[in-house]
Design goal:
Elements lengths: L3 E4 L2 H7 L6 E3 L3 E7 L4 E5 L2 E7 L2 E9 L1 E6 L2 E16 L2 E16 L2 E16 L2 E15 L5 E13 L2 E12 L3 E11 L2 E10 L9
Antiparallel strand pairs: 1-3, 2-5, 3-4, 4-7, 5-6, 6-8, 7-8, 8-9, 9-10, 10-11, 11-12, 12-13, 13-14, 14-15
Length: 209
């Protein structure tokens, strides 16, 4: 069976975003739905002005070339591109997020997302910012509640706790409690620096370097 549908419900949003998490908002999609004996396939370009996922807020969401296949209680999905104007996670703001060639699956209530590359205009938290980030080997896991994101990041310029730097490389990890920058290397005014940084997501907790 096939047909064009347009949905503005949270249940439709759950087709394109991780399951097992608290999600609120509306997703609009001009979609093509095909149902066979094997399962259901949904294709389209879902968009949302504002979504809340596990206490995080996303705005200006656009997805292009998305396909969601559901069969046997498992799901596979791909998207050519996913964008968000902004993402707010507790004290951390991510601006200008663009992820390409997204692939994912939902198996046994656990969601996994993978992408070879992504770009962010800026990541900032009180007193610090990272600009023009390029991410490689992006991995996001949603094991029911919570999340874990890992990626290799490079960026042109930034500032952490008042110290400006440039030409940065780091392995980044994000979970519901903190942003961790492992093996960070950068150039500063007096030479080069290597460090590890832990940024707590809760207000009032100290930055650890």
């Amino acid at each position: 069976i096939g047909g064009e549908v347009r949905a503005r419900t949270e249940e439709a949003a759950r087709l394109f975003f991780p399951t097992g998490v608290e999600l609120a908002g509306e997703v609009v999609c001009q979609c093509q739905v095909e149902a066979t004996r094997a399962g259901v396939s949904v294709r389209g370009n879902p968009v949302a002005e504002r979504l809340s996922i596990e206490g995080s807020t996303l705005t200006g969401i656009e997805t292009r070339g998305a396909k969601f296949d559901l069969a046997g209680g498992q799901a596979q999905f791909v998207a050519q591109r996913a964008r968000a104007r902004s993402v707010r996670i507790e004290t951390i703001d991510l601006d200008g997020v663009e992820i390409r060639s997204v692939r994912g699956e939902i198996v046994a209530g656990k969601t996994r997302l993978r992408a070879p590359e992504a770009n962010l205009t800026r990541v900032s938290w009180p007193g610090s910012h990272l600009d023009t980030l390029r991410l490689n080997a992006l991995r996001a896991d949603f094991p029911g509640k919570g999340f874990r994101v890992t990626t290799r990041a490079t960026l042109d310029v930034g500032e952490i706790a008042g110290l400006p730097f440039r030409e940065v490389e780091t392995q980044a990890r994000l979970d519901p409690t903190k942003l961790t920058l492992d093996g960070l290397t950068a150039r500063i005014e007096t030479g080069e620096v290597a460090a590890g940084v832990s940024v707590p997501l809760r207000r009032g907790l100290p930055l650890v370097v």
